[in-house]
# Entry
Amino acid sequence: MNATVSTTIFAVFMVGTVGLGLLAVRRRTGGGIAEWSVGGRSLGAVFIWVLMAGESYTSFSYLGAAGWGYNYGAPVLYVVAYMSCGYAVGYVVGPMLWSYARRHDLVGITDILAHRFGRPWIGALTAVLATVFLLPYIQLQITGMGVVVSTISYGAISLNWGYFIAFAVTTGFVVVSGLRGSAWVSVLKDVLVIGTLGFLAVYVPLHYFDGYGPLLDRLVAQKAEWLTLPGHSGDGAGGSGLGTAWFVTTSLLNALTVVIFPTTVAGYLGARNADALRRNAIWLPAYNVLLFIPMLLGMAALFVVPGLTGAGSNLALFQLVVDSLPAWAVGIIGVAAALSSIVPMAVFMLVIGTMWGRSVLSLVPRWRARQKGAAQVVVVVAGAGALVLTYAAPNTLERLSLISYEGMAQLLPMVLLGLVWRRLTPAGGLSGLAVGVGTVCALVFTGHDPVWGVNAGIVALAANLVVALVVTFATKADADQRPDADVLARDSLDSRESLASLDARDSVDSVDPLDSSHGIGVTPASSDGAPRSAASAD
# Structure
């Protein structure tokens, strides 16, 4: 009976989620890949806030954060540290990327790199590399939602079927609704997440411990190791290695990486204007308060459901829920957790589809005029690939998250340095990228992460940057004849272009941004020296 009640509530909300996505795009016919992938660049500050909060508050936050709290304790606070610092970096970087993409009619990180270096194949290469490091993150969300579905059904639905449901619902949703639908569903998700976590923050300590005082007293008396770095299992031989050096380097690396993560950039480019992104960077840290709840409740679970190991630790929070709440409440909390998987997974899949439709398949002439359709096909393929990985190579949620960030961090020199420094050459950027990716893969897959007590990704990034600079200074400057205004990004605080002037430029005829004779996104200058915008193709 419990399984019937909770799964019925879950099913109703899933149908409602797809319906909300359809409602979001009911009057948005046409518009091409820009409408589907970046919401027609028309999302205001509120929608951008809920969308980007939805991307950051994922199944890792709901399940993995509780699992880290259960397994290690204090090291999980790196999530709050890097996200808060990342929003500060995004205050500058977000508007800069938005302005650059708007001026040149670009719809993603691969577009930006292809335009900056004037070589379409660099965009294609970046799309392939980014896909490799995004697939584990999609796998993370599928795993998280599968755990939720199986748990709230009281075991009636197996994990394998839970994974498939996660794939089917999200794929259907994103193909139909695109970024705008994800923003609308984020509103529902945020209401449920805030409500359910607020309830659990009060309910669990009162129900199991008679309040926060007794809970905290027990933690200090019996689990003091969990309350300081490096957390449970320590820093010595066989320990977690999650000490102060790891905490600082991981927080720094992720804070820089999150601002150029392809899904974050998709959120930036969906904004109506740069000021919406600045306001968003100010408001988003408030959402981090919610992260403390699953972290603390994960440690509370040490006393209620001891003995969880490996991936089972991700069930710490939900085990408390299922053991003590009625089925209808379990169903609603399960919906909140499931939406915490669906929204970010939808954006990840959408971004992969956009990168391939825009930067890879568009290099084939017959696909160039059908970018949106090609992107939607790629969404299905990418989702299916992540589903297969979930069955074939399951892993704990936190490891998947770290692999994605450490790999994606290797794009930092080409994106952030390349957009402000004209001297960086394609050879330099790509050489550094190859060394960085090779280093991080070697360290991670041989079990040397952390290495010397620090995050392996930041070691790889340091090698990446050194090689990029050495190769750049050892080779001739790029012969690109475009003016700086067409190649480099403007300072974000100086890029407050009025919407009227931007929209006026959008109406000017221009070359096809995918015409290889000009280079992807390379646009001719207008009479006043400013680059004309390129028309997007569908």
The CA atoms of residues 353 and 379 lie 5 Å apart. The two ends are 49 Å apart (CA to CA).
